């Protein structure tokens, strides 16, 4: 079972890396197209350029935030998750119990609904930065941190009782490290990437005005 799981892990790893780079190139292509449209607004809008330039630019920036975020954030988090699992201990059971391995992988995996939250967060960041309402973005970050802290307290951390009596102390520490790393990396990287994409989208929307 060890060899089969390892081969499957390597195959999944290659797929994750390829998916990440393809999506990143697509996101860059979207940004280049957006800047190209901005450079040709005079030609595209004609005499109405002065009236419609800013609304069209704002809409274009919002499209960049949505598409670039969709193409970058998910694949980036998947790649980070994969690297953490590969470079750290993949499971506290060391592939000896298939049922427990699957339970552990489901437990440390990202829960459903995160992509929808990220989508809304990118829109919120874009609108607040575009309008200059920084306090709204700051309030959201405080609320998000508080909510995440509360969820971490509820879920807790892996214990010897939850992992089983056969797990030794070192494996327990490794499991806790992987648990914590996957949690805060996903939280921090996802939030920071959404913020950076929003800043980039605002730059597209406001350039050269």
Counted beta strands = 0
Order of helices and strands: HHHHHHHH
Pairing-aware structural class of the strands and helices? mainly alpha
Q: Tell me about the largest β-sheet.
A: none
Question: What is the count of helical runs?
Answer: 8
Could you name the ranges where pLDDT drops below 50 across 5 or more consecutive residues?
A: 1-7
Instruction: Indicate the mean pLDDT.
Output: 75
Radius of gyration in whole Å, from Cα? Answer: 22 Å
- Percent of residues in helical segments? over 70%
| Shape category | elongated
**Domain count:** 1
Strand content: under 5%
Spatial separation of the terminal alpha carbons? 60 Å
Question: What would you say this structure looks like, in words?
Answer:
With 209 residues, this protein is mainly α. The chain has one domain (2-206). It has eight helices and no strands. The protein has helices at 2-39, 41-45, 49-87, 98-108, 114-131, 134-155, 160-163, 169-206.
Write the layout of secondary structure elements.
Blueprint: H1 2-39, H2 41-45, H3 49-87, H4 98-108, H5 114-131, H6 134-155, H7 160-163, H8 169-206
Helix pairs in contact: 1-3, 3-5, 3-8, 5-6, 5-8
Question: Tags for this entry?
Answer:
209 residues, mainly alpha, 8 helices, 84% helix, disordered N terminus
Structure in a nutshell:
The chain has 8 helices and no strands. The chain has 209 residues and is mainly α.
């Amino acid at each position: 079972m060890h060899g089969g799981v390892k081969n499957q892990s390597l195959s999944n790893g290659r797929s994750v890396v390829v998916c990440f780079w393809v999506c990143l190139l697509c996101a860059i292509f979207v940004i280049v197209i957006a800047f190209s449209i901005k450079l040709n607004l005079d030609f595209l809008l004609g005499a109405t350029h002065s009236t419609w330039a800013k609304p069209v630019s704002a809409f274009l920036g919002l499209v960049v935030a949505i598409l670039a975020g969709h193409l970058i954030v998910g694949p980036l988090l998947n790649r980070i998750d994969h690297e953490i699992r590969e470079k750290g201990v993949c499971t506290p059971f060391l592939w000896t119990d298939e049922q427990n391995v699957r339970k552990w992988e489901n437990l440390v995996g990202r829960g459903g609904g995160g992509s929808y939250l990220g989508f809304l967060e990118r829109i919120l960041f874009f609108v607040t930065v575009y309008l200059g309402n920084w306090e709204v973005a700051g309030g959201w970050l405080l609320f998000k941190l508080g909510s995440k802290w509360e969820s971490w307290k509820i879920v807790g951390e892996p214990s010897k009782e939850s992992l089983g009596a056969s797990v030794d102390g070192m494996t327990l520490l490794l499991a806790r490290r992987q648990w914590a790393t996957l949690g805060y990396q996903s939280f921090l990287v996802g939030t920071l990437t959404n913020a950076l994409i929003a800043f980039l989208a605002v730059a597209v929307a406001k350039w050269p005005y």
